[in-house]
Amino acid sequence: xxxxxxxxxxxxxxGQVVDTNAAWIARECNLAGIEICxxxxxxxSRQPILEALVHAGEHADLVILTGGLGPTRDDRTKKxxxxxxxxxxxxxxxxxxxxxxxxKQRNIAMTPLNRNQALIPEACTVLPNKMGTAPGxxxxxxxxxxxxxxxxxxxxxxLITEQVLPRLREKGKTKAIYHRTVLTxxxxxxxxxxxxxxxxxxxxxxxRMAYLPSPLVVRLRLSMVGEDLQRVKKVVEEEIxxxxxxxxxxxxxxxxxQLAGVTGRMLAEKNQTLAVAESCTGGYxxxxxxxIPGSSVYFKGSVTAYxxxxxxxxxxxxxxxxxxxxxxxxxxxxxMVMGVKERFKVDYxxxxxxxxxxxxxxxxxxxxxxxxAVAGPGKRYAYNYVFxxxxxxxxxxxxxQTALQLLRRMILKEL
Amino acid sequence: xxxxxxxxxxxxxxGQVVDTNAAWIARECNLAGIEICxxxxxxxSRQPILEALVHAGEHADLVILTGGLGPTRDDRTKKxxxxxxxxxxxxxxxxxxxxxxxxKQRNIAMTPLNRNQALIPEACTVLPNKMGTAPGxxxxxxxxxxxxxxxxxxxxxxLITEQVLPRLREKGKTKAIYHRTVLTxxxxxxxxxxxxxxxxxxxxxxxRMAYLPSPLVVRLRLSMVGEDLQRVKKVVEEEIxxxxxxxxxxxxxxxxxQLAGVTGRMLAEKNQTLAVAESCTGGYxxxxxxxIPGSSVYFKGSVTAYxxxxxxxxxxxxxxxxxxxxxxxxxxxxxMVMGVKERFKVDYxxxxxxxxxxxxxxxxxxxxxxxxAVAGPGKRYAYNYVFxxxxxxxxxxxxxQTALQLLRRMILKEL
Lengths: 415, 415
Hints:
- Chain A is of the alpha/beta class.
- Chain A folds into three domains: 169 residues, Molybdenum Cofactor Biosythetic Enzyme, Chain A (3-Layer(aba) Sandwich); 78 residues, Alpha-Beta Plaits, CATH 3.30.70; 153 residues, Maf protein (Alpha-Beta Complex), CATH 3.90.950.20.
- Chain A has 16 helices and 17 strands.
- In chain A, the strands form four sheets. The first copy, chain A, has a six-stranded mixed beta sheet with strand order 2-1-3-8-7-6, sandwiched between helices. Chain A has a five-stranded mixed beta sheet with strand order 14-13-15-16-17, sandwiched between helices.
- In chain A, helix 11 packs parallel to helix 16.
């Protein structure tokens, strides 16, 4: 099945917004065995949208449009669709009821503009949108399926995953595809590629492999398309079994696993608890831990100590340590981790102290320097890292991920 | 001047790479007064590239192609260009010398593939590429300029900035453009649109306006293209002055401003300090605050209290309040905010306690229920919100953004 994506919005054409929607849709379609032949971004204006529709309608079996379905007047998609499909906007009572219900739940007054969102092209099938007020629209014309969804990412994702792909599957328009992502940590992409060269060279015909790097986590995606799901699944799983022999110790999970979730599960299974003391990571490490549903079972809490006084008052760091070694030091990291472990009465604790940037670096302690301490039953270690680059956000993310990795390895008794 | 961008690469169409190149080029062109009318992404194959070229050539004064100029065999752009411009590849000695020099400097052996990079369409002007081995190519046909640059971001950026835009400027092909984004919070897109209807109807010819919604923040972008930068700037700024009268109190910043940054600047200017007590937001509120460079000037830190015991021990919440009203209550939010304010000895404090989901909801306190308390010199308030939807991450983001908004309004004495 050949598909085109049309993303609509002035903000895309002035470069204010990067088109992450198109990439997300392309990936999901690809995983469902749908080939994307073209992605077109056009402004919120009649003629460009219409032209893109005409072109896509002539070349593709599936056309996915995003954006331009909001209540405001800069959104012209619905009218253009009416023109293209030779239909008119009609009031759709079920959509209106859903919009009313949403506003009622949130205790907000509806405006006439919201009522307009219940105006739907007569020729389409409405795809209910549980995440917002603008429903998805499904059209068919000359054997081509056209789907229009809002541009708000979580609404778009919901509609594609829960409404569009299942309907295509039902119609037999998607192929069997099996994919698995192997998550690794603590190894650079190039080193990984070297270790896996032999394995990669021997992958069976049809198994596709891609490296998806991100800060500190390298994901390996294996996928295979075929007629029979059981068969392709068996082939891919067999290759993953082989893969594990090449890089034991670096794999921390699969697919949507997150380091915080994997680590949290281990704590929950052992009935053990965790607390965190943060300086340079400023709350982000706690955020990663508490992003996991159910984390309150093992996570007791954290202290972000952004001043020396708070490090002393709330974590019991000694004044002399701060004065002698500075806030970014092994001494202080260790006192922070022991302080939070005692005060929160937990089994495990992690602490970070470093220089996230963009200011604050010195020749001895450049931006990106961080000390991370981790403590468990009867054990305590501290490690020093110097991450390259002075980008604050990246240093915060890297320090937090590394802290989780150390925690995981301590729980696994690898430290 | 109207332009189209064509980005070439299989990786874009399987969603493995997000098309940040297109957004970057669009923004730079926009700032130079070049209007981007369409962005098309096509795979590394002859027919789709040619089709995109033909369409762009018919509609635009400027066509920018990126990608497909590398040495490997999946790069077909140069051959397609030869077909479209009815020319042939010839060996270009100066380019060859530059490639040789690069390899010599980096002490790498050249391969025959690298020699191919000196093969250049005869009809084009070569744009020297100081950042890599593939030069940019500049063609003119029927008054339209076509430029092809490599897809490697830093090579592309160098060629656009140092070679393409200066040449266009010389030819008098760039216009003046001015745009400004107004950031609002605490008001839904539809309500905003209603309040601004009159203002929008009276916008002068040529001023374009777009709503860019995201969770809890709605951005309004105004832009205008013209011959004279000072004039278009004056027109847009005048409209923003009018706009402010329609929605006072909802505007928190402009362009790239963030709520945490705007609020932080106010604290820094007043020499005042801040601390945070978090329950349901789990560290994310602190993270937003500490994401801002220089936040250590006003932010002293935070406590994430994920259990009742920690709320009592570290924040001084009373056991009776927890037992009588529950952890998610006005009482507990207020005791948390006063506790953290006293312990951290700060001027302002914020506290959150709620049910982020996906579990933990009850009929009286459904998922999305949150109490947010804010305290300043001699003042303390608590507010109750019920956010719709049981998505943990969204509830955390919304609660944190709302907490920052309440803090900002308290500092502004609007509470």
